[in-house]
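User: Fold this, then the next.

Assistant: Folding the first:
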Amino acid sequence: MSRYSSSPGIRSYRKAASALVGSTLLLGSGAHASEVAQAGQTGVSAESDAANAVLANTVGASAAADSAEAPSDAIVVTADKYRINTLNSRLPDVRDAPQSISIIPREIIEQQAATTLNDVLRNVSGISMAAGEGGGGPAGDNLTLRGFGARNDIFVDGIRDFASYTRDTFNVEQVEVVKGPASAQTGRGSTGGYINMFSKQPKLDTFVNGTVGLGLPGYVRGTADLNVGGESLGVGSGAALRLNLMYHDADVPGRDHVKTKRWGIAPSIALGLGTSTRAILSYVRIEGDNQPDYGIPFVPNTNVALPEYHDKPAP
């Protein structure tokens, strides 16, 4: 037999019809092939109808089994509420915000042993730390965000904190950086964006944490974090009390007469935790006795008061 000769039509039709019936229910018995006898068409159509009936019964039985196994109880979904004074409380969802947002959580701060806001912000691109170049300008956190001064765009729990001081992280849970204009969220501000420091809040758990650091030259630092919540406080199931303490005393390596010394205390109390109505009262106090480092003064050759120090560091 030549390879170009065709085989009996009924055999080819049965193979094609079987394949079509096995692959989909939409075709049913509507498959037709050319050059097939009427008797063959009738037989294959009967096979298709039988296969469709078996498949329909199987689908119906499967649906009935699924409905029988489905539980009759309602499905309850539980989740933690967003913490207040964070970006999530002021924006519907941070992921949907049309801005570049960076959030540095507490885990990163602890792993890097970051003790100041400047140390934390080194994880964020687009921020420069200034230090009053030339010996002028105020001390403290002097930041530039996207080329614009952000000294007055630092917030603590959503409240503007424009004071000039070195901000410590002993009472900080996370740091949020929003880049770009954000007047819709914070009101008046610069074009670069703003920085929000989210403070630690009381929890219903009871725990005690602390850190101790010793180093050279003359580095001593200690922090304590105490939290009592729930029934342990004896006030109510939704009440909690938290206290954070800090002491820091350190010299600057390679620099004389430059030091940082500060201490802080931050108590807070919360009522109604775990309910839809919550109230949190917090207080923070930081005192510092620091000697800022403005660099090494240089005497130009035009200075007439110190001619012996021309083109040299000042005495």
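Now the next one, as you asked:
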Amino acid sequence: MIRKRTNDRSTNRKQPSSLWKNCNNLRALKQIHATIIIKGFNSNRAALRELIFAGAMTISGVINYAHQMFAQITEPDIFMWNTMIRGSSQSQNPSKVVLLYTQMENRGVKPDKFTFSFLLKGCTRLEWKNTGFCVHGKVLKYGFEVNSFVRNTLIYFHSKCGDLDIARSIFYDLPERSVVSWSALTAGYARRGELGLARQLFDEMPVKDLVSWNVMITGYVKNGGMANARTLFDEAPEKDVVTWNTMIAGYVLHGEQRQALEMFEEMRNVGECPDEVTMLSLLSACADLGDLEVGRKLHCSISEMTRGDLSVILGNALIDMYAKCGSIEIALQMTELPCNSYLIRNPD
């Protein structure tokens, strides 16, 4: 629910050179890393910052290599620490954020407002309530509780897995409330099943963005209020693939598989492109219904959508759908093929 910042001053970086613009995979990163060492730039802070930023933030899936590079830097500055904490908080293993912060403190590096925001995001993803409370204490110790960026992150943490009363207190103490803080507290109420309070906050929002609408729709869906979710969905001034996926998944979750398939047709009619999440929900609906004909049509749609890059998750979902729809022969044949072969195979 936390939004991406398009102008994040925590990076404090100049425009990258063409060398870094072309660094888009692990191999290129390793080549640049080697060049920096060979040419003696491994003490150049600007080069090291770009190196760490590329590994932790820019290139997907190479955070472990970023940790290896970071461990070789004798005296990382606050930018490098923050970049590693931020990258780790967004990775598949966010637990490393606490270790990084502990190492940072032990080396005598003073944290800033960005440090705690990234650290809290990691705690929120892990739902580490006690650790998050400790981080909140650090925020108070260093005097960053007045910073709006930190406050919004605290509201998000306490709304999701901390103390909702604290989240509410911070929210109402804000001199100016942004759409981020409104949405964070609304999501907290919805997540705890307080749909009445969540809707009251939603209705009171002076400005609602797409995330705000998605938050409230998701709250209704997760609590079984599909009729209210549909009403809000129809009222939403704009929708993205997340909005559609929430409704489709909600119908499947609550046993309204036909309605999920109908919503998919609506989605296509308005020109919204489905993604993997959409197809996983729809394949589950077909499997529950045992509707082989619709399942085959979905298989064709998936082939067109993925264009030769079918994930293992989607491949397994297709096999499960064919098996549950009674087409055991196709399901068995597909288990013997590489995932990419599912795309060129005629499901008939």
